């Protein structure tokens, strides 16, 4: 069982920045690929970004490329999502998730590939 706790959400004006953090329990953090997803009101959950077990591979949804950066610190059991140039359409609840893959390069896009999820943190971008 892996527990995930997100933090760093909040209210920000368009053009601003936020950094989300996701702290994971357990001693096998470097064995997991990690992902960030988001869900806006009335919409389906959407993939945002993912990072491979050792951080060598990353992947982003097109709408955040060049604005968001995913990173991880395996010594701190934490994955981050740096969000710059935020837009009102980025408003959503953001979730981190664990992919217990054995493939060192995998960065899965589908939520079905993820095994554990955090409770989410709200990000609201005002215009």
Keywords:
globular, 127 residues, 0% helix, 11 strands, four-stranded antiparallel beta sheet, mainly beta, single chain, seven-stranded mixed beta sheet
Can you give me a brief rundown of this structure?
The protein has 127 residues and is an all-beta fold. Helices cover 0% and strands 46% of the residues.
Question: Can you put this structure into words, describing what you see?
Answer:
The chain has 127 residues and is mainly beta. The protein has no helices and 11 strands. The strands form 2 sheets. Strands 2, 4, 5, 6, 9, 10 and 11 form a 7-stranded mixed beta sheet that branches. A 4-stranded antiparallel beta sheet has the order 1-3-8-7, with no helix packed on it. A hairpin with a 4-residue loop joins strand 7 (68-73) and strand 8. The protein is globular and about 40 Å long. The relative contact order is 0.32.
Q: How far do the termini sit from each other?
A: 40 Å
Task: Give a count of the beta strands, DSSP E runs of length 2 or more.
Answer: 11
Largest sheet: 7 strands, mixed
Strand content: over 45%
Average predicted local confidence, pLDDT:
95
User: Helix tally?
Assistant: 0
The topology string of helices and strands comes to EEEEEEEEEEE
Oligomer: single chain
From the spread of the alpha carbons, the general shape counts as: globular
Structural class: mainly beta
Instruction: Give the helix level as a range of percent.
Output: under 10%
Low-pLDDT segments, ≥5 res: none
* Cα Rg: 13 Å
What is the topological layout?
Layout: E1 4-7, E2 10-13, E3 18-24, E4 33-39, E5 46-51, E6 58-60, E7 68-73, E8 78-83, E9 92-99, E10 116-117, E11 121-126
